[in-house]
């Protein structure tokens, strides 16, 4: 039977799109090139038996805060969320910590002890978020420009005093945090979260991710799927199958077949799959435009604009099995699931600047996940499944640490020796905050740019966000100027991946926007042109 829709790729965006189409009664087939579903939402036990490591993403505040993901009711399909005793910790070099607690009053009193006044400033920020946060999230996750409700939303934000918050989201994270807070603790809670995107802390727009993640952390937390990230993908697959949808694994799509300007089929290694209504591509923009769809079927101006498409930086991720928890100096009473490691905002700026300049940072900014803390079912009693990742340039010119005594240089070839050298640098940084950490390592895996891309071809060169989050490639400029919506120049073909607005992260919005666009276009067509 010819399906109504084919979804290329089973990442979270592909699976959300497939579920929404199936909800509308469409027959859907998802074609996935790997031998497992989920894209960058997966977990495995290959580091050490009994230790479940998330292969890529781990913490899901964006999913928990996403109206689309919430509306899937994945709990009815086996998903259980688990949370660490506290949300997030920032580990300073002198043993101090800034901690984002579940309870905003606890966060505020700790911040106040660091710098009097910061507690109230934190509570004020939370109060603004209470008024406008839900609307703002809905607005950020909707297609851009918002066609329906855009004006109403603006009015509502103005009335609720939310325009000030919108302005702050557009500010550089450094200006915002230095204006709002006196102490380093509160500043780094926001700036560390801003470090999840690739916008420099001094550039406009870098506050978006910082404020969004900090406020989601304070309201919905940083939950993880019990048992591993694969449980989230598994629940989405089960939900889809319960609606009659199908996920075919090991099926790489090599072409979207376009006839008379319309997507009519996709080609895979095992043949052609015809489609009745729509093809939704959960692949990167460069893989779709000029890749799966040849330039002969696309406007010349798109080719021109795509030549200016910018990837986000590359990534090196290290996973460890530990015999016991990380021995952090002055560990917070309530252990955080996520830990950020940077000496200061200047330290983060320096590392980010080095990445932008093509240098491997000497003191990389680390995002660390303590998965046994967040979900005890993932580790043997007393053990820990730890990871840390950091960004490195897509094209390495040199190593900022070159010539430093006792530091092994990284060449940028990302061969085994480079991965070892980078892992050593990351380990030293954790050891500086947690003496004795290395003695607890029982197994290690290093995933560099090549390994990440081999496990998920959307992670081109180790890019995690489907393209830079810089303002010049956001909103109507995502993936290229004049777009911002899921529609493509080919009728019946939609871009559903993180390369589309609103970009990276597990919120499902790119997939949902694509599914809604496909449904809308189908409904809008006269009945005699619907098939
Ligand atoms: C190391 C790492 C850590 C991260 N941490 C977090 C985090 O903690 N929280 C968070 O919210 N986000 C995180 N992210 C980002 C998040 O995982 C991604 O933004 C998100 O997975 C993007 O979803 P997607 O569906 O667009 O693409 P993907 O998840 O990349 O899925 C794309 C899928 O398409 C398949 N595919 C590609 N081409 C083809 C083809 N031609 N034929 C068939 N199948 C194809 C791929 O195999 C893959 O399964 C992280 C990402 C990485 C890499």
What does this structure look like?
With 531 residues, the protein is of the alpha/beta class. The chain contains 18 helices and 21 strands. The chain has helices at 12-23, 61-64, 67-71, 104-114, 118-141, 150-159, 162-169, 173-180, 184-194, 207-219, 230-242, 285-288, 300-306, 345-356, 371-374, 416-433, 449-455, 509-524; strands at residues 5-8, 28-31, 43-48, 51-54, 81-82, 86-91, 97-100, 224-225, 246-248, 253-259, 262-268, 271-274, 278-281, 314-322, 336-341, 359-360, 366-370, 384-392, 398-399, 441-447, 493-495. The chain has a 7-stranded mixed β-sheet, sandwiched between helices. Strand 1, helix 1 and strand 2 (28-31) form a beta-alpha-beta unit. The longest helix is centred in the N-terminal third of the chain and has 24 residues, at 118-141. The protein is globular, with a radius of gyration of 23 Å. The chain starts with a strand and ends in a 7-residue tail after the last helix. The structure holds flavin-adenine dinucleotide. Residues 8-14, 31-34, 39-41, 56-60, 62, 252-253, 282-283, 287, 315, 317, 389, 452, 456-459, 464-466, 497-498, 504-506, 510 line the site of flavin-adenine dinucleotide (FAD).
Brief synopsis:
The chain is an alpha/beta fold and 531 residues long.
């Amino acid at each position: 039977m010819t399906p109504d829709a084919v979804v290329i790729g089973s990442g979270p965006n592909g699976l959300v799109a497939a579920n929404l189409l199936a909800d509308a009664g469409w027959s859907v087939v998802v074609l996935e090139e790997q031998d497992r579903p989920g894209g960058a939402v997966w977990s495995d036990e290959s580091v050490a038996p009994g230790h479940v490591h998330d292969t890529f993403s781990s913490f899901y505040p964006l999913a928990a805060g996403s109206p689309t993901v919430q509306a899937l009711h994945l709990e009815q399909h086996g998903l259980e969320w688990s949370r660490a005793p506290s949300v997030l910790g920032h580990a300073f070099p002198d043993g101090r910590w800034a901690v984002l607690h579940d309870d905003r009053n606890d966060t505020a009193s700790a911040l106040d002890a660091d710098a009097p006044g910061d507690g109230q400033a934190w509570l004020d920020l939370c109060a603004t978020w209470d008024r406008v946060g839900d609307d703002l999230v809905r607005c950020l996750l909707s297609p851009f420009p918002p066609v329906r409700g855009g004006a109403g939303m603006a009015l509502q934000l103005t009335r609720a005093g939310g325009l000030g918050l919108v302005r702050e989201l557009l500010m550089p994270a450094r200006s915002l945090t230095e204006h709002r807070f006196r102490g380093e603790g509160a500043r780094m809670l926001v700036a560390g979260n801003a470090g999840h995107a690739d916008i420099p802390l001094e550039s406009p727009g870098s506050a978006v991710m910082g404020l969004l993640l900090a406020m989601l952390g304070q309201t919905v937390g940083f939950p993880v799927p019990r048992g591993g990230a694969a449980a989230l993908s598994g629940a989405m697959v089960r939900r889809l199958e319960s609606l009659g949808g199908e996920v075919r694994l090991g099926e790489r799509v090599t072409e979207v077949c376009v006839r008379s300007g319309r997507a009519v089929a996709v080609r895979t290694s095992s043949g052609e799959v015809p489609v009745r209504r729509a093809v939704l591509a959960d692949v990167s923009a460069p893989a779709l435009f000029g890749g799966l769809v040849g330039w002969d079927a696309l406007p010349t101006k798109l080719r021109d604009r795509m030549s200016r498409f910018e990837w986000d930086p590359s990534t090196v991720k290290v996973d460890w099995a530990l015999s016991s928890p990380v021995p952090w100096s002055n560990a917070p009473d309530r252990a955080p699931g996520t830990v950020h490691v940077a000496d200061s905002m200047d330290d983060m700026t320096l590392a980010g600047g080095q990445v932008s300049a093509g240098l491997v940072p000497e003191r990389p900014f680390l995002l660390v996940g303590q998965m046994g803390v967040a979900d005890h079912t993932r580790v043997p009693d007393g053990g820990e499944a730890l990871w840390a990742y950091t960004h490195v340039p897509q094209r390495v010119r040199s190593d900022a640490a070159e010539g430093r005594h006792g530091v092994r240089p990284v060449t940028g070839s990302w061969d085994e020796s480079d991965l070892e050298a980078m892992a050593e640098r990351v380990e030293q940084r954790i050891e500086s905050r947690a003496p004795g950490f290395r003695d607890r390592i029982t197994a290690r895996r290093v995933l560099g740019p090549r390994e990440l891309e081999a496990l998920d071809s959307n992670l081109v060169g180790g890019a995690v966000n489907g393209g830079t989050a810089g303002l010049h490639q956001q909103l109507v400029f995502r993936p290229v100027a004049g777009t911002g919506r899921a529609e493509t120049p080919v009728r019946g073909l939609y871009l559903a991946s993180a390369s589309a607005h609103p970009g990276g992260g597990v919120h499902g919005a790119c997939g949902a926007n694509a599914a809604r666009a496909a449904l809308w276009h189908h409904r809008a067509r006269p009945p005699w042109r619907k098939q």
